[in-house]
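FAQ: What does the model actually see?

It sees only this:
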Amino acid sequence: MNAFTKLLALLLISTLAACASKPDRPELSEREIYETAQGYLNSKNFSLAIQNLQMLESRYPFGPYAEQAQLEIIYAHYRAGDNEAAVAAADRFIRLHPGHEKVDYAYYMRGLSNYTEGEGLLERFIPTDMTQRDPGAATQSFEDFRQLLQRFPDSAYADDARARMIYLRNRLARYEINVANYYFKRKAYLAAANRGRYVIENLPQTPAVPDALAVMVQAYLLLGMDDLAEQTLTVLRRNYPDHPNLDKDGNFLSEVGIDQEGSFLNKATFGLIDRYEPPRFDNRQKGQE
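And it is asked to produce this:
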């Protein structure tokens, strides 16, 4: 027996011995993996819960627990604070199981994940005006909940979805007013008026409507569109007589008269005197919202 043959024989014997020294470890059953994942969910160890749920789905893709695991992965990602992953998991479930008896849960969780998108740890403990934030996730959340109600009006999640949609509408309307205030600062008065009109036309019956009307009145005055200003003021006066920009006789208390930046004093003092103070509308500060 040459040296190579001897070496090969030794390697084979070593391999067989190693295999014999390790007892067979039976693969965990689908139910065992699922129960393990449930234990991690109950103990709020969402990372390990996700790992086990994903393992269950990969090992037993057609088993009785597979679809439930996909639903619980959505929840686990959401509770772990990974809203993007939760939305992706919800989208996947909706795509794979559009007729599933619990698909309404996936729609609801997709909306809920977008609803809380942008809320970091700081926002959860310190009051933050979310109407100042980019409205992208809020808009998507509103659409998610709208789809849920349209497809499953009798869903167990319908009432909560409706309540959240009301909040989102109010938030989106207030965002438009904030943008209008920004446009006043930039002296883009027509753009400010358009934001106010958008609220009136697309987000009626929200607490921001009175301010939207006031925005339009102020913008039209600054643009010299007195007829439009008077028409809008009539609507504001008739429907919201207690708005802070109306005096007791219903006259509009303009936040700015003549554009101060164009005044002689402003130019002569390089803006130090008669400084332009842009209009800003927010009736929440008056306790009306």
